[in-house]
Amino acid sequence: xxxxxxxxxxxxxxxxxxxxxxxxxxxxxxxxxxxxxxxxxxxxxxxxxxxxxxxxxxxxxxxxxxxxxxxxxxxxxxxxxxxxxxxxxxxxxxxxxxxxxxxxxxxxxxxxxxxxxxxxxxxxxxxxxxxxxxxxxxxxxxxxxxxxxxxxxxxxxxxxxxxxxxxxxxxxxxxxxxxxxxxxxxxxxxxxxxxxxxxxxxxxxxxxxxxxxxxxxxxxxxxxxxxxxxxxxxxxxxxxxxxxxx
Length: 246
Ligand SMILES: Nc1nc2c(ncn2[C@@H]2O[C@H](COP(=O)(O)OP(=O)(O)OP(=O)(O)O)[C@@H](O)[C@H]2O)c(=O)[nH]1
Ligand SMILES: [Mg+2]
Fold this sequence. Notes:
Blueprint: E1 9-14, H1 21-31, E2 36-41, H2 48-58, E3 62-66, H3 73-86, E4 91-94, H4 106-114, E5 119-125, E6 132-134, H5 138-155, E7 167-170, H6 171-175, H7 188-199, E8 203-208, E9 210-212, H8 223-242
Parallel strand pairs: 1-2, 1-4, 2-3, 5-8, 6-9
Antiparallel strand pairs: 4-7, 5-7
Helix pairs in contact: 5-8
Bound molecules: guanosine-5'-triphosphate and magnesium ion.
């Protein structure tokens, strides 16, 4: 740790990412050497946790939070955020392990939050000018664009990639949330977090990224995750328009 302390904690949830995890750790630390990285692994049968444990033994910027079984992306991030808040990191970052999120955009995203006190969240966005997707099957692109258009309309929120999982939060904004009440499992976790930042009156900026489909390993996306997100977004939309604001 430098005298100034680490700039950020990059939280990376993993489930069966043995082929990807080493590369993502190298890419993150290459792009932001002053950051720390916490991998939250859910007892991956493919030994992802063992790989991270070995890397962590060599580099004190790398940490492993090993959980016993597949408990879902949302709870993995909440566990990682709590770990980071307890240790006083000023910024908390969300990033997938599958290589979809370009680590070289982290400096721009971190800058967007650090350079303006009013900004509480920077989203690495596929669906703003300058953003793009590479090698993504058409059905995934249609699903993501459709879900985001629907969410923007129903929630009345000006974010173009509200399901994105590549994010930099000001830690104080996460600290101000009641993390106990987050029970979203899939993509709607990202929507939930966005609404919670919005409810604090914080500004959200979108930094364009080039998103790549995963090359190794298999997707954990499921029909259930899509249905959960649709139902939740619709429910939150009604609440925001007609009643309780989140
Ligand atoms: N700890 C933990 N990590 C998970 C869980 N489910 C998914 N992940 C990780 O969360 C990240 C995103 O999952 P992906 O399977 O890539 O989901 P996705 O990006 O929506 O799907 P693709 O676009 O097909 O890759 C990856 O790093 C996964 O390994 C889980 O239950 N627990
Ligand atoms: Mg992915």
